[in-house]
Hints:
- By secondary structure, this protein is α/β, with parallel strands linked by helices.
- It folds into 2 domains: 7-183, NAD(P)-binding Rossmann-like Domain (Rossmann fold); 223-315, N-(1-d-carboxylethyl)-l-norvaline Dehydrogenase, domain 2 (Orthogonal Bundle).
- Helices cover 49% and strands 12% of the residues.
- It has 13 helices and 8 strands.
- The chain has helices at residues 15-26, 38-57, 65-70, 78-82, 96-108, 125-128, 167-175, 191-207, 213-222, 233-240, 242-256, 264-271, 288-315; strands at residues 7-11, 30-34, 73-75, 87-90, 115-118, 138-143, 152-157, 179-183.
- Strand 6 and strand 7 (152-157) form a beta hairpin.
- The protein is globular, with a radius of gyration of 23 Å.
- Residues 11-17, 35-37, 40, 91-94, 98, 102, 119-121, 143, 145 line the site of nicotinamide-adenine-dinucleotide.
Amino acid sequence: xxxxxxxxxxxxxxxxxxxxxxxxxxxxxxITLIDRDAEVARAAxxxxxxxAVAAEAAGLADPGSAEVVRRNSSSxxxxxxxxxxxxxxxxxxxxxxxxxxxxxxxxxxVSESTVIGTNTSAIPVGVLAxxxxxxxxxxxxxxxxxxxxxxxxxxILGEASDPALLDDVTALLVRAGxxxxxxxxxxxxxxxxxxxxxxxxxxxxxxxxTATPQQIDEVVKSGFGFRLPFFGPxxxxxxxGLDVYASSYATLSAGLGSRFxxxxxxxxxxxxxxxxxxxxGGYLGMSKEESAEMASRRDRSYVALARLRAELESEA
Length: 316
Ligand SMILES: NC(=O)c1ccc[n+]([C@@H]2O[C@H](COP(=O)([O-])OP(=O)(O)OC[C@H]3O[C@@H](n4cnc5c(N)ncnc54)[C@H](O)[C@@H]3O)[C@@H](O)[C@H]2O)c1
């Protein structure tokens, strides 16, 4: 197989399956959308084609991409739907028993060289792999919603996964404009562990009357979240000053409890005199010159983002 011609079956034609199928179809893969319910699979194929036509018309996808998406098919029959598949995407309900049953059924209907990827949001790949006889060809390939438009993909290798088997799939993802990142096989991986921690704290503030959902969403979008398209938590902490972070943790911990205790790695850096970009170093280990370049890029990025937001809001 080559990533140019990869034959892909997507099992579970719901919200994510449909978006993943559209994205891989646009990148040239041949897709069969499969669901336990034939009507759901057919409707997903129609919706995927409709979405691709609308995306092309709106300039969100390359000219000609909708025509490519039209060439695909749907099925409710696992055996015929999986025939010839070189890569299978499992995107059924996030329930262990359902995923185990579906993965075992997939394996029973594909060749030994077929790569199987699960789009699980949080269940470790090692836990899902117990349903398979050949866990070496099984991986986590975790997409973000909406799949056609978010570039990030978490690739999760279970203990038994053979990374070499993933080469053609990774090439296809890159051709689809995605940025795959290999992450550890732990519950929620990186993205959902962080996202769900943020949501839990936000929900607590609503539950105890500290803030409304509207207030929180606005503060996140226009405050610290405004930085996130450009910088992750470590770049942000390094720029803010690790000593500033430690002082804030002391206040938060005293007022809100031990879940806000200063992280040990932060305290250790401060004890060594490493305060982030102001001293050089920090979690990202940047020199003062690199830090200055980042600060200049930061300001240009925020002004550009503010203009883009204003433009999009004026169109709404
Ligand atoms: N919704 C999100 O934002 C999101 C983001 C990333 C990952 N995920 C993950 O993607 C997976 C799918 O989520 P979703 O939001 O698309 O769910 P969904 O409910 O929209 O779709 C699931 C589909 O699976 C089908 N299905 C269930 N059992 C089946 C079986 N035995 N055989 C064939 N098809 C079967 C259902 O009919 C349904 O169409 C989950 O693991 C979820 O955690 C979801």
